[in-house]
Write a structure and sequence with these properties.
Blueprint (H helix, E strand, L loop, with lengths): L13 H33 L2 H6 L6 H5 L2
């Protein structure tokens, strides 16, 4: 039975490119999460106090929910 070496070194610069792309993905995900929280805060801010009370919130809870 023959054994073959299947692992190879990454090509020059591949790890740096991977880390760069990964950091872009992380920044994009953070931006999307920030935007989702912003939209949620905006929608909750438009509700009346009665509507907020119906869902178990008060006006002061809006900032903490959006985070």
């Amino acid at each position: 039975m023959a054994a073959y070496e299947t692992s190879r070194a990454a090509p020059f610069g591949a790890i740096a490119i991977f880390r760069f792309v990964q950091s872009l993905n992380d920044k994009t995900a953070a931006l999307a999460a920030w935007n989702d929280a912003r939209v949620t805060r905006k929608a909750l801010g438009k509700l009346s106090d009665r509507e907020l009370e119906d869902i178990g919130l008060c006006r002061g809870d809006i900032e903490t929910i959006g985070r």
